[in-house]
Design a protein that fits this description.
The complex is a heterodimer of chains A (307) and B (133). Chain A has 8 helices and 5 strands. Chain A has 307 residues and is of the alpha+beta class. The longest helix of chain A is centred in the middle third of the chain and has 101 residues. In chain B, α2 packs antiparallel against α4. The radius of gyration of chain B is 28 Å and the shape is rod-shaped. The termini of chain B are far apart. Classes of the chains: A alpha+beta (307), B mainly alpha (133).
């Protein structure tokens, strides 16, 4: 039974000791913790967003700080002041962290808007590039088409030219045939009998006018055709005489053509004397055949068949 | 006998009075446990490990002292709670900041790619929003 009393007395004594300890405060560690808490709460209060975004933490921090200051005033134990100050400081830290999170979220919506902007720009650029490419492709297609048309036209022109050239060649052939020209192994050749000149003379008789006229007309119609005019004689008389005579006769025909507007460069005049007979010189008929002027025509490109 | 009865009554009254005046730590302990769990689930072990460790060790001590030192247990539970709150708030802030960095880095990459694709663009490029401290 005495044990109970002892226990009671002990309990009472302990309570008194605790109370006494409570009374003996204003300790340096309590002060320090309180200062720290005041500073933390003040820092939080100075944040512009504090009451908006971290209202609860601010409220909790202020309440704990108030309680700590009250405990200090009432000289409660240092442990209690330190504890309440700790609650105040830590609540202030919660507030700081909440504000940091809110700031990051605000920046996040800006960052997302900016990202959208960059994406939009990229899409617009892609679209513009695609459009540009389409335009280029269209232009290129148009160019190709134009080129194809030009090629076709050119081909048609070439074909037409070839046809024209063929037609001209046929015309020339026909006209030459009309003038009694013959196809020989030296090309088309027109043989003029000695009716054009008086015997031994080198002046064209008036009867030659029509033939010279037709010839010059033909040469003007076919400006690429050249002529080679060869004078020939029979075997009577010396070589030099015959060559000179045949040369003069060929030149007479040439100058008659020139006087009708055929350029000299298209005309060759050659005297071949008696060197190229076409018949025997032992009869007057043969000699008559040998006395002649031959006009040899080039092809449409101005080329003579060699030989 | 009578004295014994009186003594028992007095002691009982004293204990009962003690029970009435001495606060019970159970509510603070429950709250501290809840908050520490929340901080753990939020990822505080990675992003606010010091705060979480402080909360855990105070909570453990609060649990140990719950019966013998109820007032100390309450204080420890309250400090564990506020530590857990700090841990969770810092974890959330760190997550938001990392997400912001990711978006900004992605935007920058995109911008670099676009600029490379179109090197002669003369468009003014706005700067990345600054990371809040």
């Amino acid at each position: 039974m005495a044990k109970y009393w002892i226990a009671s007395i002990c309990t009472a004594a302990c309570g008194v000791a605790v109370l006494l300890a409570g009374c003996a405060t204003t300790s340096p560690e309590g002060e320090s913790a309180l200062d720290h808490a005041r500073a933390a709460v003040q820092r939080l209060e100075e944040q512009p967003l504090a009451s908006q975004t971290a209202g609860k933490a601010l409220q909790d921090a202020r309440a704990a700080l108030g309680a700590a200051e009250a405990a200090e005033r009432e000289h409660k134990s240092a442990d209690i002041v330190v504890h309440l100050s700790y609650l105040a400081s830590r609540n202030a830290e919660v507030g700081e962290a909440v504000i940091a999170e809110a700031r990051a979220r605000t920046a996040m919506s800006q960052a997302q808007a900016q990202r959208e902007g960059v994406l939009l720009d990229a899409r617009e650029r892609d679209a513009a590039a695609a459009h540009q490419q389409a335009l280029l492709a269209q232009q290129s297609a148009q160019q190709s088409q134009a080129q194809a048309q030009a090629s076709q036209q050119q081909a048609q022109q070439s074909a037409q030219q070839a046809q024209d050239a063929q037609q001209q060649a046929r015309d020339a052939q026909k006209q030459l045939e009309d003038m009694q020209a013959k196809q020989t192994d030296r090309g088309m050749m027109l043989t003029l009998g000695n009716v054009l000149f008086d015997t031994g003379g080198d002046t064209l008789k008036p009867g030659a006018d029509e033939l010279v006229s037709r010839l010059s007309q033909f040469l003007q119609n076919h400006p690429d055709i050249k002529v080679r005019i060869e004078g020939h004689t029979d075997s009577i008389g010396s070589d030099s005489y015959n060559e000179a005579l045949s040369q003069r006769r060929a030149e007479a025909v040439a100058s008659a053509l020139q006087s009708r507007g055929v350029p000299a460069m298209r005309i060759q005049a050659v005297g071949r004397g008696k060197s190229a007979p076409v018949a025997g010189n032992d009869s007057s008929a043969g000699r008559q055949q040998n006395r002649r002027v031959e006009i040899i025509f080039s092809d449409a490109q101005g080329q003579f068949i060699s030989g | 006998m009578t004295r014994t009865l009186i003594a028992v009554t007095v002691l009982g009254a004293a204990l009962a009075g003690g029970c009435a005046s001495a606060p019970q730590p159970s509510a603070d302990l429950t709250q501290a446990h809840t908050l520490v769990d929340q901080a753990e689930q939020g990822g505080a072990a990675e992003l606010a490990s010091a705060d979480l460790a402080s909360a855990r060790s105070k909570l453990q001590m609060a649990d140990q002292d719950a019966r013998d030192k109820p007032e100390l247990s309450i204080r420890l539970a309250q400090e564990a709670s506020v530590d857990a709150r700090v841990a969770l708030a810092r974890t959330n802030a760190a997550k938001a900041q990392m997400a912001l960095r990711d978006v900004n880095a992605g935007t920058q990459t995109l911008r670099n790619e676009t600029d490379r694709a179109q090197p002669n663009t003369s468009m003014p490029v706005p700067s990345t929003p600054a990371m809040p401290q």
